[in-house]
Amino acid sequence: MSRSTPALDIDAILDDDNTRIIVCCGSGGVGKTTTAAALGLRAAERGRSAVVLTVDPAKRLAQSMGLTELDNTPRRVTDVNSAGGELHAMMLDMKRTFDEIIEAHADPERAQQILTNPFYQSLSSSFSGTQEYMAMEKLGQLRRSGDWDLIVVDTPPSRSALDFLDAPERLGRFLDGRLIRILTAPAKVGGRSAFKVLNAGFGIVAGMLTKVLGAQVLKDIQMFVSALDAVFGGFRQRADQTYRLLQAPGTAFLVVAAPERDAMREASYFVERLAEERMPLAGVVVNRVHLSRAQGLSAARSSAAAEDLEAKGEHELTAAVLRLHAARMQLAAREQREQEHFTSAHPTVPMAQVPAMPEDVHDLAGLRQIGQLLAS
């Protein structure tokens, strides 16, 4: 990290009562889940009532917090060194969240029609963008509940970590699309008798769809869209509200990256995309940075010393250690160059570094250490 790069003050963000939502985004495998959990724990131990929402299917978050499992209901984390705060954690169950929305916004008969519909069951568990959309829904639910003064979100592990910003529009385009309007038309004008009302052009299209999809699949889709029509307006409205909430001053986006070429390029893309969407970026967290306590001993000098010892046939262990140090310094130099490429493009973006840990984080003590490193 360049000396001119502004430092990311994590504790200032966590201690600010106006900060109500922290969104951790970044490409997959860079430590978003661990970062989100560490931020939630540190916030709780500094007096905040915090909840961590993760959509990462791995069990690491539950294990590190001492919980036997995480599900769609926030669970309290014990053994927190509380200063008046508390910590809850949950893992998004996208299908259960979708079911809850249907149950809350449709009358019992219509809800049952939707929940038992085969097309809905497929859509709610596998449609592209459903997970990201439901993450937005769950975030909105947590915020509206008022039960926590800080929500930390670990974004979906998708190819683009900003897919959750696009998911509501994508799902909306699907449900508002021409094909869906054609499929819905019979139900909207009276079911079976509708085909008498519609023109011959629709009959041809319907016949082709029946051949491609099958009569039962087509019927399932028609019934699903007809039943969902009454509640979808609420979907879009709530998604728009949550989107505006993400743009509000009380939200802080943290882009999480690793000091590798692809990850830093993704981080640069995320920073630019957040600026386009007018989302409040707090800074960038670079995880797993390799450092050395012997910074004064360069890779070149270390390699030269190792070669000299090896030529003399002396101190084999010392020579091996010098070789390891040289390799570490070379790795640190590569990582530094990747970070400098990022900072040259985004010189005003605050940054924090977290050194590489000797082992994976698997308990609260490890999360607490990560939090301290983030804030140091």
N-to-C order of helices and strands:
HEHEHEEHHHHEHHHHHEHEHHEH
Taken from the alpha-carbon principal axes, the silhouette is: elongated
Mean pLDDT: 81
Helix content, binned percent:
55-70%
Could you list the spans in which at least 5 consecutive residues all have pLDDT below 50? 187-206, 208-213
Given the structure, what is the number of helices? 16
- Biggest β-sheet: count, sense, barrel? 8 strands, mixed
The beta-strand count equals 8
In whole angstroms, how far apart are the ends?
A: 14 Å
> Strands of the biggest beta sheet: in what spatial order?
3-4-2-5-1-6-7-8
Judged by helices, strands and strand pairing, the structural class is alpha/beta
Using the CA coordinates, give the radius of gyration: 26 Å
The percent range for strand residues is 5-15%
Topology:
Layout lengths: L9 H6 L5 E5 L6 H14 L3 E6 L5 H5 L10 E2 L9 E6 L2 H12 L2 H8 L2 H9 L3 H16 L4 E5 L8 H14 L1 H11 L5 H4 L2 H14 L1 H33 L3 E7 L3 H16 L4 E9 L9 H14 L3 H30 L5 E5 L8 H12 L1
Parallel strand pairs: 1-5, 1-6, 2-4, 2-5, 6-7, 7-8
Antiparallel strand pairs: 3-4
Helix pairs in contact: 2-16, 4-5, 4-7, 5-12, 7-8, 7-12, 8-12, 9-12, 11-12, 13-15, 14-15
Structure description:
The chain is of the alpha/beta class and 376 residues long. Helix content is 58%, strand content 12%. It contains 16 helices and eight strands. The chain has helices at residues 10-15, 32-45, 60-64, 94-105, 108-115, 118-126, 130-145, 163-176, 178-188, 194-197, 200-213, 215-247, 261-276, 299-312, 316-345, 364-375, and strands spanning 21-25, 49-54, 75-76, 86-91, 150-154, 251-257, 281-289, 351-355. It has an eight-stranded mixed β-sheet, sandwiched between helices. Helix 11 packs across helix 12 (215-247), helix 13 runs parallel beside helix 15 and helix 14 (299-312) packs antiparallel against helix 15 (316-345). 38% of the residues are buried.
